[in-house]
TrEMBL record:
Initiates the restart of stalled replication forks, which reloads the replicative helicase on sites other than the origin of replication. Recognizes and binds to abandoned replication forks and remodels them to uncover a helicase loading site. Promotes assembly of the primosome at these replication forks. Residues 301-470 form the Helicase ATP-binding domain. Its cofactor is Zn(2+). SMART domains: DEXDc, HELICc. It is an enzyme of class 5 (isomerase). Zn(2+) 1 binds at C533, C536, C573, C576. The gene is priA. This is Replication restart protein PriA. The lineage of its organism: Bacteria, Pseudomonadati, Bacteroidota, Flavobacteriia, Flavobacteriales. Binds 2 zinc ions per subunit. NCBIfam families: priA (TIGR00595). Keywords: ATP-binding, DNA replication, DNA-binding, Helicase, Hydrolase, Isomerase, Metal-binding, Nucleotide-binding, Primosome, Zinc.
Amino acid sequence: MYFVEVILPLSLAKTFTYSISEAESHYLKIGMRVAVPFGKSKIYTALAIEIHQNKPALYEAKEIQQILDERPIVTKIQISHWQWIASYYMCAIGDVYRGAMPSALLLESETLISQKTDSFVDTSLLSDDEFLVYEALQQQSSLKVQDIIAILNKKNIFPVIQQLIDKNILVLQEEIQETYKPKLIRYVKLNSRYDSNQGLTDLLETLKNANKQKEIVMRYFQLSAAENSKARFENRITMPITVKKLVDETNSSAAIIKALIEKEIFEEYFLQQDRVNFTGKISEFELLLSAEQKKALVAIKNVFSQKEVCLLHGVTSSGKTEIYIKLIEEYLENGKQILYLLPEIALTTQLVGRLRNYFGNKVAVFHSKYNNNERIEVWNQVLQKSEKAQIVIGARSALFLPFDNLGFIIVDEEHEQTFKQADPAPRYHARDAAIVLAHSFKAKVLLGSATPSIETYFNAKTGKFGLVEITKRYGNVLMPNIELVDLKEKYFRKKMTGHFSDILIEEITAALSMGEQVILFQNRRGYSPIIECITCGHVPHCQQCDVSLTYHKHKNQLRCHYCGYTMAKPTHCQACSSVDLTTKGFGTEQIEQELCFLFPNSKIGRMDQDTTRGKFGFEKIIDSFKNREIEILVGTQMLAKGLDFDNVSLVGVMNADNMLYHPDFRAFERTYQMLTQVAGRAGRSEKQGKVIIQTYNPDHNTIQQVTTNNYEAMFDEQLYDRKIYKYPPYYKIIKVTLKQRDFEKLKTGSMWLYQVMSQNLNMPVLGPEEPIISRIRNEYIRVIVIKIPLSVSIGNTKITIQKMLNSFEAVSQFRSIKTTLNIDFY
Ligand code: ADP
Ligand code: ZN
Ligand code: ZN
């Protein structure tokens, strides 16, 4: 009797045993996928993690349906890393498996499959089975796996579906729902038959009587040559020639280019912007580090000879990226794989460009906005140790790729909270999980930040991590000069126009007159957060959530930022019918509008969640700002994330206070990080930048620490508070969230759990508390926080917690209460 132990892509903590034949037991290897029946009639893609001969004691093992892979597609190191994540973050191994794999590798019986819109299908290239599926989809818009089993009259259909996905004919359901369209750019290149000298002569002969066309072709040659050398000089990726550029440069029309394409002189092709293949030459200019950078590089290497993790604490624009590049170079030479983690997908495009200059096509990108085919492609490249993915840049999910020979992980902007996954499980922290992953490869980890998290800096100060610091900006650029504006005083003296102080207006005017750009930061989107009735004080709330609705003027709507609920802006109060409604607070949209009034001749842009939807929304705004098509950019914290603009001389913070008073033990740390990072966008070239921070609390310690660029003072103060109030790094925090539609049930249940926990755990347990937003999508919420002192075993505590949760779930009246655990919650 032979069995395979598998992980199912479901929220199940256990693994399951299926029976296999002896032949299958020889063929099947750990890390291959198998299709297995589960429940009454469902089929899932499971992952083999052990082949054994132990009959399960509690149930009759079902047979697997089929083996899906010819060789393992998941490595043993991955499996044990996933098991670590499941155990550390207290979630089901099935959750980790499902979160880690590109979903096209996880077909299941319920998956809806349809034909890709506007795909061209050459039916003569399809196998009989593939054709049958294709034909069925001409009648029906989508099919379930079950339907396809019926159509083909056989069970082993996953390979057929996979083939059709690979051939770009089918898509899975979730892709159809994706609203974004990849930005495609139209390029032309010379038909390869004209590549030779003879070809060139022929070409000129062909164009003898077509002057305009000849001119375009000649211009094409010039542009290609110029593009190549310029790219090398400017240290950036070489792009092929776009149709747009050619039309602009030659004052011609798209029609003439089209004629050239029809004549087969040019070939046109389309590329998705961030998947453009690097066609230029790798930069010939050697990257020369400054003395400061060299010193840091040596120091990091020293650390790595003794420790696995090093923090690079370098002020904004100190040239950390160039140090990463030098290190990457060395690991590349030793044939190692390198993982470069970024907090935000949107930052990848900028970075890919920079890295490809040095490493050409060895740079791959992996993130959740890629479609299935793209993700599978990178997955396979990493698995096969292909050179094309020797350096992988990605957001946190890139951590789950099948590395085999990982040598080096960079976690850039390590303080960013987006590295922690909030929902769904696994609620892992990519920085911490990266350190664990590196350990199993004996790889090194470099954490980089201008404003390290308190935890990381603590680890560096106490010797767990190495610490390397750079206190100067690259190229003698000065740190920005930060000036505080006291809003209380300005309002009192009537020196405000809308939300702009006289000083801010002066500075903006001065910057614009010098042809410099301005960034304005307001950490709230929308027009103004709330609408209030002047007569009775009523504020419209979301019907499903315990939050006031945000006013979006542009669409004349009230919108819930938690569940997406929208309603038209009311003309009168819903409570007293009064028509005297006023707005309170302000968001990016209102700032944008005030700007249009204050600076009617300037080009103004806005960057927030509302304007950056879609795959390339963010890049488009960044591009137009870089190209100076936008002079003043208003935005939320998206602006704070490691962007490099060279012409921004002024940064204005509209209001520093709303972050400061968040009821969260990290509020001061976050305010410091956010303000320092936004300020860091100012003056990244020769001229010293200026930052104006408007605040009601100019004397607040945190604001002062930002102004004087005193990270150490911020750290010391916060660390002291964390010790007194029992927070990380001195205590590990576990947040238990309970949700239920029935308010009374939730109250009883959360009190029950709280009491059991506080009686049985010999440590602080807080709660059950109503969070500030105590209802979302009609579910009430309660929170219990457990604080584990460093002296206590975390492993044992988690076992106790799990037992208590099990007994909680065993109480029938509590069974409908959903509980989630968030370890090290951010
Ligand atoms: P950080 O990541 O520390 O904020 P960057 O790596 O973005 O800083 O560097 C800031 C600016 O200085 C960038 O425009 C970068 O190109 C430039 N720079 C840094 N180091 C060098 C170097 N050694 N040679 C040329 N340019 C550099
Ligand atoms: Zn009213
Ligand atoms: Zn809502």
